[in-house]
Inverse folding.
């Protein structure tokens, strides 16, 4: 966005909080407070009007982030744009299912195992690790 200030802030605790919420647990509100404080403490942070949810996990905790940052902050989730781009890049491709759909994780299968039940509700019958 021309004429806008971009503030980058990594908050890896948000991924764990989103996964906890996905499992039906209540994430620690302090995680969201820390994320909001980390953004607000940077130069220009007091003027934040938009937050880009730059991870596929973060829309899961948008409500908690909104509570921490305030109702005046707008959130942008890029999932629909990513889905449109994938659809464009794969148009005309044949997708034949030879096995049940799988969720692929970058960590250990043991760490991902608690998510298996909720992933099944989305049609992901198996877990695989890279």
């Amino acid at each position: 966005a021309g004429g806008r200030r971009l503030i980058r802030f990594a908050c890896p605790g948000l991924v764990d909080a989103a996964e906890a919420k996905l499992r039906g647990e209540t994430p620690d509100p302090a995680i969201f407070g820390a994320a909001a404080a980390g953004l607000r403490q940077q130069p220009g942070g007091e003027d934040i009007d938009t937050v880009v949810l730059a991870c596929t996990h973060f829309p899961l905790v948008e409500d908690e982030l909104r509570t921490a940052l305030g109702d005046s902050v707008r959130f942008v989730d890029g999932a629909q744009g990513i889905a449109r781009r994938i659809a464009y890049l794969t148009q005309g491709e044949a997708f034949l299912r030879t096995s049940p759909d799988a969720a692929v994780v970058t960590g250990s299968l043991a760490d991902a195992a608690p998510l298996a039940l909720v992933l099944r509700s989305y049609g992901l019958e198996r877990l695989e690790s890279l």
Observations:
- Residues 37 and 69 are 9 Å apart (CA to CA).
- The first strand starts at residue 50 and ends at 53.
- The mean pLDDT is 89.
